[in-house]
Amino acid sequence: MNNKLRISCVLEGEPTSKGFIQYMDSEAVVFDLTKRLMDLMGLVFNPLDSSNVPTLWSANLGKLKEGSPVLVKLLSRQTKLEKPTQALSTLPQDATIIVTVQQERSAVSGTASSARSVSQLMSESEILGRKLPDLVYDRAEEPSKATTNSPYRRTPALVTTWTDFQSAAASKKYSTEQKFNRNLFEFNTLPSAVVDEASLTTELYTNVFKVLNGLVPPGSLFIHRPGAANVVGQPDLIYRVPPYKAMILIEVKTKWVMECDDLAQKYNDDRKLIANGSKPENSVILPLEQIYGYLVHNRLKYGVLTTYEQTYFLKREGNTLLVSPTIYHTDRFPTALQCYKHIVDLVNEDHSSVFSSVVSFISSSMSSRGL
Questions:
Q1: Is there a contact between 18 and 11 (Cβ–Cβ < 8 Å)?
Q2: pLDDT tens-digit profile of 62-115?
Q3: Its domain of life (predicted)?
């Protein structure tokens, strides 16, 4: 992980075993780390109100007894990071950053108690309006870039851009009236390091689909590894409605397998190279045709192909596949969560897409084409 600082962190009051790592740019300063931690904890930075800004301390925890909670006041030596512009590169290499979260003051009146209760609630608009937290990557060896050559894979006749997807998702209005318990919609504030597709899917479920499950219609659900949902193929997740009917198929890939700014364009370019006898670099043919094949075999219209940081929403119209522009996990208008909710609303209206009868796919014939 070139030009990155590896910062060990732990929340005050937690044991070191619950510590976590943040990778920061080599030129990052204390303010950058503070803002990153606030994003991870779902805290909104307000330059006019610092009451929810965590305090950061630098300390060596090497002599702390294993399993003991980290408490700043009990440490013999610690340094409060008071200068927001201090370079993180100047911290001792063996230092751990202790994060002290401001505790709410005890209510002294009914008004104060009411204000605190309101702060623990979120509207649908607030829940969906948040950008997703960053992931932590940690690979000790060169990651595999191989992807599955699925026996369910199919080749669409046409792949083109779903041009109005983003604008439609951005124009939707979500409720500001109904309130939900904030604790049920919190992001993972202590993310595990992503090392492969399985760990990526876990973080994706925690930060995206568990959140969405609190907003979809009763009985509907995003589920992981849907082996019992009568789904043909092996999508990583599905969105289902009663009685166990799949409506959206979701395929997860790591950024090492698939990363591009325009999936529809890249797919078409890769196909042209194959037709001309050349081998495309970092081809997206297999991932896209895998999820398209799942949609065909299950006679479904909508799907998602995602690396978490880049997400593509798919719509199948006959043998044509529409692919949304890239939705990044840091997007604000619309956010990734708003886009997921938009496609849920679409499939609740219409999820079937009649296609020609399913035919067997012979993988050997496709392999001969160099894919």
A1: yes
A2: 778 777 788 888 887 889 998 888 999 999 988 898 888 764 333 333 333 333
A3: Eukaryota
Q: In whole angstroms, what is the distance from residue 314 CA to residue 267 CA?
A: 14
Nearest in space to 57 (alpha carbons), one of 13, 3, 106, 27? 13
What pLDDT score was predicted for residue 76? 77
What is the share, in percent, of the chain residues with pLDDT greater than 90? 33
Q: What is the pTM of this model?
A: 0.64
Instruction: Report the DSSP beta bridge partners of residue 69.
Output: 15
What are the sequence ranges of the domains in the chain? Answer: 4-103, 136-367
Query: By CB neighbour count within 10 A (0-12 exposed, 13-18 middle, 19+ buried), where does 62 fall?
Result: exposed
**Are 248 and 239 a contacting pair, CB within 8 Å?**
yes
Q: What local confidence, expressed as pLDDT, does residue 1 receive? A: 42
CATH architecture of the domain 4-103 equals Roll (3.10)
pLDDT tens-digit readout, 310-347: 999 999 999 999 999 999 999 988 999 999 999 999 98
Tell me which residue has tokens 């009146």.
Answer: 109
Cβ count near 226 (within 10 Å): 21
Helix/strand/coil (H/E/C) assignment for every residue in the chain? CCCEEEEEEEECCCEHHHCEEEEEECCCEHHHHHHHHHHHCCCCCECCECCCCCEEEEECCCCCCCCCECCHHHCCCCEECCCCCCEHHHCCCCCEEEEECCCCCCCCCHHHHHHHHHHCEEEHHHHHCCCCCCCEECCCCCCCCCCCCCCCCCCCCEEEECCCHHHHHHHCCCCCCCEEEHHHHCCCCCCCEECCHHHHHHHHHHHHHHHHCCCCCCCCEEEECCCCCCCCCCCCEEEEECCCEEEEEEEECCCCCCCCCCHHHHHHHHHHHHHCCCCCCCCCHHHHHHHHHHHHHCCECEEEEECCCEEEEEEEECCEEEECCCEECCCCCCCHHHHHHHHHHHHHHCCECCCCCCCCCCHHHHHCCCC
Lowest mean per-residue pLDDT among 78-82, 168-172, 190-194: 190-194
